[in-house]
């Protein structure tokens, strides 16, 4: 008795003759097939294939109605990127029939009656190919996953785990295009730690690194929408890309961020403006149009950051509103009386 490989197969027999189906069924079970399914018509064969997803098909050609060639074509169309070995098992012994069987997608062609040893040998050969194909699929999937992981790593900053400059460039580019298409506001915030040089100089570079990690964790945490992105784009410079965030929302976001940082009370031993670490940020918000570029947005956010620094730091300046988050909250001074009016 010739038996199949260790990995037992699920086999679909397609033959309109009941006696052939029963004979093959018995032979295949004797060889150690795990499961044998049978179909007597072309339509049933295709349905059984879709339902059971067999590992191998033994396919007759001559049947009432549609024939085995048609079935092979249907199966090849239905299996997507997979491959299911098809062995034609037929009484047709002309070379043209064999040619047509292989042309429509068959992998082997046996002429009935077939001896059990020959059938077992052919199935075993197909089983070996199937094993190789499955290993190849598994390796391809592993490679795909590894490639995805590599792409992620290429865009990650090693110290903080945030998106790095390269990822920032890609994301900002994509978000400008998206916001342009959907006519949505897009906010870019560039944040910079205040007096970080003094922090480093006083506490040393390793402590400076830890501080950067704390700030990064804070920025990452404050980006709660799945489309928000926190990036490290320079030594102590961070960027937040906030899709679908209008000017007012950006200012609320900025205040939340400042409050969160203040609540962490990270000691800055040499800050001229207080005992704790602070951030300054420049904000730009627009509904991008065809003329909006990454460089334009970054330049506006940088200018706003410069204004925040110039106004004493520890604040967030909006390029479009020309006001800082703190100034926006401050009660307005009553307008000075016009000249000549009595107070
Ligand atoms: N520890 C650490 N320090 C860094 C890193 N990258 C840049 N820096 C430091 O960040 C500091 C930036 O200094 P400046 O550009 O003068 O900025 P600043 O002292 O924060 O001053 P303002 O931004 O004007 O408030 C420098 O001391 C850099 O050495 C890093 O990866 N780790």
Offer a few descriptive terms.
Rossmann fold; alpha/beta; 5-stranded parallel β-sheet; Alpha-Beta Plaits; 2 domains; binds guanosine-5'-triphosphate
Task: Show the helix and strand layout.
Elements: E1 10-14, H1 18-31, E2 35-39, H2 42-52, E3 56-59, H3 68-78, E4 86-90, H4 95-103, E5 108-111, H5 116-154, H6 165-182, E6 186-193, H7 196-203, H8 205-222, E7 229-232, E8 237-243, H9 247-264, E9 279-286, H10 294-310, E10 316-318, E11 323-324, H11 325-329
Parallel strand pairs: 1-2, 1-3, 3-4, 4-5, 9-10
Antiparallel strand pairs: 6-8, 6-9, 7-8, 10-11
> Got a strand count?
11
CATH fold assignment of the largest domain:
Alpha-Beta Plaits
Query: What's the arrangement of strands in the largest beta sheet?
Result: 7-8-6-9-10-11
Strand content: 15-25%
Query: Which structural category do the helix and sheet elements fall into?
Result: alpha/beta
Overall domain count: 2
Please write the CATH class name of the largest domain. Answer: Alpha Beta
- At the fourth level of CATH, the homologous superfamily of the largest domain is Reverse transcriptase/Diguanylate cyclase domain
Question: Helical percent range?
Answer: 40-55%
Elements, N to C (H/E): EHEHEHEHEHHEHHEEHEHEEH
Total of helices: 11
User: Unreliable segments (pLDDT under 50, ≥5 consecutive)?
Assistant: 338-343
Ligands bound, unique: guanosine-5'-triphosphate
Q: What distance separates the N and C termini? A: 115 Å
Kindly report the average pLDDT value: 92
Based on CA atoms alone, the radius of gyration comes out at: 35 Å
Under the CATH scheme, which architecture of the largest domain would be assigned? 2-Layer Sandwich
Profile the largest sheet: 6 strands, mixed
